Amino acid sequence: MAEEYVQSLARGLAVIRAFDAVTPELTLSDVARKTDLTRAAARRFLLTLVDLGYVRTDGRLFSLSPRVLELGYAYLSSLSLPEVALPHLERLVAEVHESASVSVLDEADVVYVARVPTTRIMRVTIAIGTRFPAHCTSMGRVLLAGLSPAELDAFLAGNPLERLTPRTVTSPVALRSELDRVRAQGWAMVDQELEEGLRSIAAPIRNRAGRTIAAVNLSSHASRTTLESARRDLLPPLLATAARIEADLHAAASREATP
Amino acid sequence: MAEEYVQSLARGLAVIRAFDAVTPELTLSDVARKTDLTRAAARRFLLTLVDLGYVRTDGRLFSLSPRVLELGYAYLSSLSLPEVALPHLERLVAEVHESASVSVLDEADVVYVARVPTTRIMRVTIAIGTRFPAHCTSMGRVLLAGLSPAELDAFLAGNPLERLTPRTVTSPVALRSELDRVRAQGWAMVDQELEEGLRSIAAPIRNRAGRTIAAVNLSSHASRTTLESARRDLLPPLLATAARIEADLHAAASREATP
DNA sequence: ACTCCAATGTTCGTAATACGAACGAGAGTT
DNA sequence: AACTCTCGTTCGTATTACGAACATTGGAGT
């Protein structure tokens, strides 16, 4: 490792990540296998995490405790965006009856920071913190379109565009031209490129300087809408919501500057 | 330290926690001061966290990246509770126009795992992961009332009941009898014991075995409601919501057992 | 019921890791 | 311009965390 690097921290965080929604309870050996650590090492990290309150155990099985949320909490609460956006998302969902979300860009992924689901039961659960590849999501397209040319070049150079469905755009050239269109029209629509049957439409949220800092979207099953109906019925309320969030965000920013 | 303990992991997590909503951007020295580490140590951990993608830096200032959410994400998404509860919270908020939340107990604190705010601007921001002392919150009272006698004894023995407002119940004896009442009546009301002007009412969410696993609440400003109006207008919808969440949760649990 | 096997969890001497004192760089003040 | 104070960085060392080896548990086979 070129840089100064604390191996134990990296390994300890890997232990936290070893737990997932499918297997929320793991034995010591399970953790060792998932993290490529020796059992002795896994044990040390687990005992440390139990001591710190991040992990619980009955002696055999280990699971995450609610305290792990505090690690993301500082980030979430420092971001005024979710707080500001939520009421507007509620209103949007009440109007169009589709799930609405807000996300930010992190490396090559979009990360959900606020979400209002419809009452419909959905196949994929999307919690705060969920990550999806930017290149094949509507919010990702909007966020990528907001990057500087240099940043976009770096993104395309560093990240292969993985094919997740037959419709996924995987050519950098094609994505570039799609991003040009998104930038020009001010919104993005993605049709079943992330997952079969999933269609979504997104709009940017910009700061005062005009830089895209987040995206808001509506997503629905392909069976419920056509591309035209989405554009006709969902786009106008979505754009109005994005504008309202932006306005509130700018107002909140001024309030902070001059309290 | 009696147990096997990885110091570097504990220190590294402390570095993550050094960031908060008030000061989301810190210099290396700021972090060192906040964590009681030497600057050299703080530097090692920060560089490691930058390398792992959990922290961003412009060279001078450090801040958390959205990736920190992934540490809490596994916990959140393994918990079916927020997913199940959210639609019911939405409905409740639409009906009574007060903010609704769901929390679980962790050590001596309640931890918010789902929340639907009203459009009203509030003084205190409550994000997912926010912690409050259990003894002086309505959800905390409901959760403490659901503990076994032995667990409650351990709680009272291990945690001094801090006075946060003049009204906070700080005597273990008084709290015990209040918890008895809460257990008998099936809900809790707390009037400005956490913060002046804040009044809230909570109900338990139980698993099939009858154990209280979470609490749902409504909170409002003392100026907007009286104790009687809260009990008359808020309690019935709150109890109905708790019942609906419980029913859905039990249904989801059976679906999981026999897919 | 007993033995054996395979997996799990734990111990402890060692070497690599992370430690912090000492150093150097940079900004603000007199 | 010289000084000072705080910041970030380096590097030899001692402590920390490492994992091979050992102990323990649970289950399959006879």
UniProtKB/TrEMBL annotation, chains A, B:
Residue ranges of every copy of the IclR-ED domain listed in the record: 67-251
Please provide an example of a Pfam family that matches this protein in its UniProt record.
HTH_IclR
Keywords for this entry?
A: DNA-binding, Glycerol metabolism, Transcription, Transcription regulation
Give the top-rank taxon of the lineage listed in the UniProt record for this protein. Bacteria
Give any GO molecular function from the UniProt entry.
DNA binding
Q: Which residues form the HTH iclR-type domain?
A: 6-66
Q: Name one GO biological process term.
A: negative regulation of DNA-templated transcription
Q: Does the keyword DNA-binding apply?
A: yes
Whether ATP-binding counts among this entry's keywords is no
Question: PROSITE patterns recorded for this chain?
Answer: HTH_ICLR (PS51077), ICLR_ED (PS51078)
Database matches in InterPro entries: GAF-like_dom_sf, HTH_MetabolicPath_Reg, PcaR_PcaU, Tscrpt_reg_IclR_C, Tscrpt_reg_IclR_N, WH-like_DNA-bd_sf, WH_DNA-bd_sf
Biological function: May be an activator protein for the gylABX operon.
Q: Which PANTHER family match?
A: HELIX-TURN-HELIX TRANSCRIPTIONAL REGULATOR, ICLR FAMILY (PTHR30136), TRANSCRIPTIONAL REGULATOR (PTHR30136:SF34)
Protein name (record): Glycerol operon regulatory protein
Q: Which organism is it from?
A: Acrocarpospora macrocephala
Q: Which lineage do the record's taxonomy fields give for this organism?
A: Bacteria, Bacillati, Actinomycetota, Actinomycetes, Streptosporangiales
